[in-house]
Specification:
The chain has 147 residues and is mainly beta. It is 12% helix and 45% strand.
Amino acid sequence: MMMSSLFLRQRLSQFLSIAVASTIIFATPSKNLQAQTPTPGGGITIRSDVQEANSETGVFTARGNVQINYPARQIQATSTQAQYYSRERRLVLSGNVYVIQQGNSMRAETMTYLIDEGRFIAAPKSNQQVESTYLVSEPNSAIENNN
């Protein structure tokens, strides 16, 4: 059963309440979901081929070429699927997940982001490993001594 566009926007706003001012606009099913211009400290943009929301369970699902942008925490991510569990404030990415935050990156088969803790939990495909790359800055004194 198709929900009205207005009702769907209201429900999605509740589901993706990562920030108080985070409001979601839902386009036709074949188009992307886009957040409005985020306010300071809030807002997330999720783009994908298909998206659905279940108002009873509070679960939002995006499938196919998922792209996530969370400017407040400087997070960008891509995956095959993303599910946002609004009641737990948990985002689960699956399928060739790649996340970059402040220049640091992580690649895994599945990754869970605990929003309230600001923490990622990553798991690889069977017989593979999670790959992370972290920027490590040298202390100023070590750089100056080399010159």
